[in-house]
Structures are given as structure tokens and as C-alpha cells.
Amino acid sequence: MTTPPLPPGAERTDESSVRIGALVPLTRPGWVEAGQHLLAGLELAVREVNDAGGIVGRPLELVVRDTAADPRRAAAAVDELARLGVAALAGEYHSVVARAAATRADALGLPFLCSSAVLDTLTEQPTQWVARLAPAQSHGWRIYADFLLGAGHNRIAVAAEPSVYWASGARILRDHLAPGGGTVIELDMRALTPAAVCDELVDSRATALLLLVGHPEPAVSIVKSVRHDRRLAEITIGAPAGQPEFAEWATLLGDDSGAIPFLRYLPERLGPLGARVETALRERLAEAPSFVAFEGYDTIAVLADVLRSHGEDRARTAESWPRVAIEGTRGPIEFSRTPGINVWQWAWPPVQVVDRDPAQPDRFRILHAG
Known about the structure:
The protein is an alpha/beta fold. It has eleven helices and 17 strands. α1 packs across α9 and α1 packs parallel to α10. It is globular and about 65 Å long.
């Protein structure tokens, strides 16, 4: 079941359910489609947990809050959910928002299993309260850098907007590409129009352009400008952050949506659990589920397992992260302490570089796996 937002100041009095707070971007400027897929995965898993008897006979309840990609709104939601007595927090897609939520959850002593945000520094200091399913940005983006080098790209332009997440991504690419002879050319999108980006690409002799910018804008406008500039017919456009994963990308760009490599966190073939969940998610979403929907499902699967074993005590939940060992939709899930990462981390989910087939944009092609 999914609980709608409460009126200001209201407290839920139903003590029969075990509640999990869910942080999800459901309105702009949040990436709404990603939020919808994340919520679909969370809700499907909650339904299945309840169909199987709940948490030791008690129903699992999802208390959803829309973060709208706003860190302050997310931090306030964490405070509210803590007051409402949730056993744990789940979700969030946007890295900067997840960092605000993780920082607040750590301060309050509220367990938070982050579903989909990849920024390495979710918290500034090591914490026992936060765990994460998505791979750290440094892991996934290094795999993407290996793909670029393997494809023969050594002059790589990045169209970047100001953000901790984009700056971190550019740094990871620069540090990993340099030893292989790669050069990163940064294009500041505060100062450039999409048409001006094309001129910069010609002047810099870049062979690849990476979109480190928001979706749908300016990402869509940049792709259209580059794809329709005859001078840039041979350039590769890439989107490591995963903008082409969602159907909206193909809808907005049509024939221009294909052949843009991006990162996704799925295995080459799903096992029996993953295949069953994929079918159920497709029915729920009325479209192919993204990897984000699987992350949502796996989040609830982990938390339900912990809550069955340790009850609703928040400290015991936090202490249980290193003892988690379950089969997720994309492989066995266990958490460990990973160098440079301050939270408990699944190391690692499967990582692929894929693109949409230009001849069939709803079909994905696996280009590289890490």
C-alpha cells in the first residue's frame, strides 16, 4: 500500500503497519520519469511483501514524499518521516538530494537505504546509518571512460552545468582518461548556447561530446544542434548519467535519440527473479522498466529482509547492513565498506554501457560491460 502525503501537522495513528519512508522525485524540476519508475519498483515490492504475509504478520506501508529534486525539501521530509515513526528510509534518484537526505538521516539516527543516487560522498564522514544499492559514481564512470578509450576517443568534450554531481563526473573522467592519453575539454553551459557548443566542438577537434547537463533541457537541444550540424557528422554523443534510459528521451528526440551511449545498471540477462519482476513492472508502468525500477524493488526486498529479522528498532537495522545477504533482481546483494565510500555499499551491481539502436529506438544495444 502507498500512503498519500499527510496534511501539515497531522500524525498517522495506525500502529498496525510497519512503515518505510520513501523519497522520490515526482514533480519538476525533479526527473519525474525516473521518480515514477523508482516508485513503481518500491510499490511492487511492498505489494509482494504484503501478499506473502507482510513483516511477521504486519503489513508493510510506504509513506511517500516528493523531493522534487530539492535538497532542502528532502531534508525536511526526513525530519517529518522520522517524527512519523518510520522504521527506515528508502529511495531517491538525484545525487545532491540523496546527499542532503543521507546527512539528515545520519544526524537523526534513521536508517536510509539509498536506491539510485551515485555520488561518492553521500555523507562527509563514515556512517553506520546509510547504505546504498547504486554503484558509486567513481566506479561506473571509470567503466564509461574505459569504453571511450576502447572506442578510440582521446579528445573528449564535456558540456557541463554547475553542480557537485557534474563536477565530480568531469573529474573522474579526466583522472581516468589522462593515463590512457585522453584529454577532457570542458564546455561551460552557463556561457554557451547549443549552437555555440557546435562551434567549440569543431575548434577543439573533439571526437566525443558528453552531456553533463540536465534533462530534458539543455540536453535535448544540444543533441538536436549537434546531430543537425554537418561539420559534426562523425562525432559521438554520450550521456554517462543515463538520460537516454527513459522513454521520454526517444519521444523528444525521435530519430536523433539513438547511438548515444549511457550507463545502466542491469546484467546482460536477468535471472528468474529479475525476469518475473520485469514482467510485473512492465504491466505496472505500461512500458519497459528502467534499471531505476529494479533498484526500487531491490531496496524494499533488502529492507523487508532486515525488518523480518530485526524488527523496527532503528539501531538494529543500521547494525544489520553488513549481514545482509539476499538475492536481488540483478544478482546477490551484500554490503561492505568500500575504500573512499562513507556508507555501506553494494560493491558492485552490474554496470553496462548501452545505447538505443538508431534503427529501432526502443531496443537497447550493450556496447561494454564492467
